[in-house]
Write a structure and sequence with these properties.
Length: 93
Amino acid sequence: MSRPHDDQHHEPGGGGGAGGEQKRASEAEQLAGWYRMAGVGIEFVVAIALFAGIGYALDRWRGTGPWGVLIGLGVGFAVGLRAMIRMAMKSFK
């Protein structure tokens, strides 16, 4: 006589078998997607800060007032936005 628990194997969080492996693979893909999006967000912020910093340095060197910073912010925004659009186009293929 066999006990009901002998022929059942339970893994925590996955249910065991191929279904559990597929679930973990799906979760890993989703996590990888979040990391990619976080990277794009960081790239966006860094591009804005970098070009604004370059504009600030040019303003201090040339004495041009806020124009270098403003142009740097605009260029940084455009570069960051381009990176976001490229990532979006790649993810929708």
